[in-house]
Amino acid sequence: MPESLIPVTLLTGFLGSGKTTVLNHLVRRPGLARTLVIxxxxxxxxxxxxxxxxxxxxSVVEMSSGCLCCTIRGDLVSTLKDAHWRFSRGGESQFDxxxxxxxxxxDPAPIVQTLMTVGVITRRYRFDGVVTTVDLTNAERTLDTQxxxxxxxxxxxxxxxxxxxxAEPAAVTALEQRLLxxxxxxxxxxVHNGAVAPDSLFGLGLFDPATKIPDVARWLNEEAFxxxxxxxxxxxxxxxGHHHDHDLNRHxxxxxxxxxxxxxxxxxxxxxxxxxxxxxxxxRDMLRIKGILNVQGRSGPLVIQGxxxxxxxxxxxxxxxxxxxxxxxVFITRGIARETIEASLGAFINAWQQGETSPVGAGKDRQANxx
Length: 371
Ligand SMILES: [Zn+2]
What we know:
Layout: E1 6-13, H1 19-26, E2 35-40, H2 49-52, E3 60-63, H3 73-86, E4 88-89, E5 92-93, E6 97-101, H4 108-117, H5 119-122, E7 125-135, H6 139-145, H7 147-154, E8 158-162, H8 169-182, E9 187-191, H9 198-201, H10 216-220, H11 222-232, E10 255-262, H12 268-282, E11 286-293, E12 302-307, E13 310-311, E14 315-316, E15 327-334, H13 338-353, H14 362-368
Parallel strand pairs: 1-6, 1-7, 2-3, 2-6, 7-8, 8-9
Antiparallel strand pairs: 4-5, 10-15, 11-12, 11-15, 12-13, 12-14
Helix pairs in contact: 6-7, 12-14
The structure holds zinc ion (ZN).
C-alpha cells in the first residue's frame, strides 16, 4: 500500500539560502523525533555539531564522501535500504519519516528520480516532496546567474522564503511574483531565523498525512497553474514576471508552468506512448510533470508524475475524488511552451484515431501497449 510507505522529503536550497538554519531549527522540534535526517555535507558548513550531539544517537546520518546528486547516489540507496534494520530496536523501526538535506549546488532531479524508481527504495519509501529554501535578500541575482538555484526553485513542492525580515518589501513582492510564475503550485512560506513548523514541510505528496487518503486537489493544485496563466496572460508559460530578453544567455533557462485539461477519456496506450515520447525527446527540460488521467476502461483515475526523463510507475486510484472526471496534467518546463505540448498531443491523438503511425513512431508503441 503506497500510503503506508515511509515518506521522504528532499530539503534543498542554494548556498547561503538558510537551508541548514532551517534544519537546525527543525531537529529541535518534538515533531521531528521519529525522523531520520540524512545530511549530505560535502565541502560545506554543515549542521551544528553541538546540537547534533544532543540528538538521539540514531537519527542523523552524514554522507560526506561526495555529492548526492552525482557521485554518491548509490550510497543513498544503500543508506535507505540499511536504515530499516540499522535504526530499529526490538524489530521496530525507530523512524517514520526521512529528510534528506542536499548540498547547495545539488540538482534535485536525479535524487528524486532515484527515490521514485529504485526498487529497494520504493518497496519501503515514497518520495513526498522537494522543499527549497530561497533567500529573499539575494535570490533575484542567484536565480539570474545560477541554473541550479533556478531548478531547485522550479522543482519545489514547498518554497521556504528566508531572511524576509532583511529584504526590502518591494523586492520581496517582486520575487514572490517571479516564483509564482516559475512554480505556481508550490506552497510558499516566509521563514524567520529558520523557524518553521515541521508539519508545513511534510505531507506534500499525494497522500494526506493524517487520513492516508489521496488528496488529489491539494497535490495537483491545478487551480494555481490556471490562475498563473490568467494573471500573466498568453505568454505566462515562458515568462517569469521579469524582463530578461536582453540577456540571450538566459534563453534556455526560461522556466514556465502550465496546465492541460482534457475533456475526453484517453486511450491508455496513447497517453503512455505520448508521455514516453515527450520524455525521451525533451525530458531534460520537463522539470516536473504531475497528472490525473481519465483512461478508458478504468474506474479510477491514473496518477502520473515525472521528473525530467523519468516517470514514477503509474498508479490507479480506487475512485475519483470528485465529479470532475477530466484529465489534468501540470507541467513545469524549461523553454517548452504550452502550445508546443498541446500541438504535440493533438497531433498524436489525430494520428492515433486515424490508426496512423505518428511522425515519431506511435504505431510501434501502440502495438507494444495494447489496451
Ligand atoms: Zn551532485
